[in-house]
Amino acid sequence: MNSRTAETLIRCYRPGKRTDSKTEKAARFAGEDPELSKVLSEQVQFDEQIVDVIHFIKPPEDLRQKLSELGDKPVAEKARRRSQWANPAVFTAILGVLLIVGIVVFFILDRMEKFPGREAVENMLTGAGKMTGTELETVSDTTGQLGDWFYMRGYEGYEAPGELAGLPVIGSRVFKFEGRTVAQLAVGNADALRCLIYQFHASEFGVQLPGDGDWQVLTQDDWVGAIRQRGDHCFLIAFRGGKSDMKEFLKTLPKK
């Protein structure tokens, strides 16, 4: 495991919480590296502060009773029940619950944005912006028919998910990225390039995404990418544009 992979994985590490073996290994690796150890320590300290904030929010001891009483009141007492929402204790409890929900949603969205291996994917998008087109071999086929082509050039296990299998390919290559083998396709026609598609092994780049999950969209410089993982295979769609452009593009793909 290298420092870059370890730094990505330790973002998922929580002391005392069950986690996967790769994250545990990354935490041990960080413990032996002064710089990573500092990063891990700062992250753990930040997480503890957030937990302390959540624990600091304490609803009134009689909140359950008050809410129960509100639910048991007859219809005739609606007017009086409405006035109870102005009760400072009830109002404070509601704000506390909303704050907790907001914090949880924030961390869920933040964790989705910062998935393990994201840095490697961002670097691929940066590399895409530096391509001239001469790197690719001319190909005239569809994405679903290139398994043998990639195998003969050193990329094993190529497969195309259903929604990408029928796209027309005008160029392909197998190349080394950060020392690992990556397959790349150019989708489009003689008049215009529609997008680039990368396929690589998730384990080689430390990428961890939900299996068979939805496409996850990210941007780097003026490029946008959509990535999905299936088993140990990662599929990355990339082109110049923003997140809204990618979302519109994904809508044009056949349903999986």
Give the structure's gist in a few sentences.
This protein is α+β, with helices and mostly antiparallel strands. Helix content is 45%, strand content 21%.
List the helices and strands and how they pair.
Elements: H1 3-9, H2 21-31, H3 34-56, H4 63-72, H5 78-84, H6 88-113, H7 118-128, E1 137-142, H8 147-152, E2 168-177, E3 180-188, E4 193-201, H9 202-205, E5 216-220, E6 223-230, E7 233-240, H10 243-251
Antiparallel strand pairs: 1-2, 2-3, 3-4, 4-7, 5-6, 6-7
Helix pairs in contact: 1-2, 2-3
Q: Spans of 5+ residues with little confidence (pLDDT < 50)?
A: 105-112
**Mass-distribution shape:** globular
What's the end-to-end separation, in Å?
34 Å
Determine the number of helices (DSSP H or I, runs of at least 4 residues). Answer: 10
* Mean pLDDT figure: 80
Report the radius of gyration as a whole number of Å.
25 Å
Percent helix range: 40-55%
Main sheet specs: 7 strands, antiparallel
Order of strands in the sheet with the most strands?
Answer: 1-2-3-4-7-6-5
Roughly what fraction of the amino acids lie in strands?
15-25%
Query: Pairing-aware structural class of the strands and helices?
Result: alpha+beta
Q: Give the SSE order as H and E letters.
A: HHHHHHHEHEEEHEEEH
Strand count:
7
